[in-house]
Amino acid sequence: MPRLAVPLAARHGLGHIMPMSSESSPRGPIARMIPEGDDRQRLVCTDCGFINYENPKIVVGSVAAWEDRILLCRRAIEPSRGLWTLPAGYMELNETTAEGAKREAWEEARARIEIDCLLAVYEIPRISQVQLIYRARLRSPDVEPGPESLEVGLFRWDEIPWDSIAFPTVHWALDEYDKRRREHEFSPATNPEPEPPPPVGL
Amino acid sequence: MPRLAVPLAARHGLGHIMPMSSESSPRGPIARMIPEGDDRQRLVCTDCGFINYENPKIVVGSVAAWEDRILLCRRAIEPSRGLWTLPAGYMELNETTAEGAKREAWEEARARIEIDCLLAVYEIPRISQVQLIYRARLRSPDVEPGPESLEVGLFRWDEIPWDSIAFPTVHWALDEYDKRRREHEFSPATNPEPEPPPPVGL
Q: What are the phi and psi torsion angles at A11 (to 5°)?
């Protein structure tokens, strides 16, 4: 059975077709139609009838610092291969946004981070993306490139490669981090702590 | 061609299968396998080869007030049909989270709202859901039920039907709203204003 390697950059796109047999002509959900009971066009597969409800995607990441130095990763993948970014990526199922930000720091820079607070919520409606960027601390300065990074580094503010930043939101988040270095209470609420169980016997 | 009505509550679930012909036996992406180049199991359709990358979903909503009264909607759909909730729902493609919160207020309560600030980010990793709840003001007290609401109402704090609230996050958001009534600066950053265009001639 022929197999297509799935490019990392395509993993969270509109979908990817994996040939099922050399005879098949895989198409996937490519027909736009409004399902009965719905009020918007959706992508439907005319082979199997699957309706692909597309939803905005969440990117989770962090501005993570060791003392006065900020972790940046030079991208090994498109888009913006070769340029510098924050450790960030698509949120996976069954994790929290903070867990996702920690996972991305590990995957991209082998960095262990502690989340401080939610620094920014950025939106790119053109590509239906919402980014949640945390302020975080590195638990150690030991970092090294993961498979999606060419190199990683810890940069003092005036060492940041401002001319080689991968995305506008990276600029925004770095500026916001700098502006709010001395602020502590600026986050929206998050899940409250679960109620402690009642004492035994009550 | 037989057609299935798509229940509103299922519109943003894992997907829904629409029969393509009376002879077909639609299955959709139901086989769990790890695509080459990936590191996680994904749902693959063995008919057409489509890989359904599932991502967490974003719910957008608001605690929207007219003077000292808060807008609540009694749900006409499952889950929690008959119970009271905030105007909130799944974010759609190509909108911002604030636009989504406004749209939901209109769809569920025919309410026009103005967004004040991001009140809370709640997470339900068990069902891979992230909720962004805004603090908002109603532009008028004229509200009426949309198709997903049995009734809507504006409640003073001590009139809220606390015993008939649809979801824990509604409780949390109402409590947070009350706690922060007098605070103004507690939001993470959002997209900066676009740069103004340079004066003509420069």
A: -60, -30
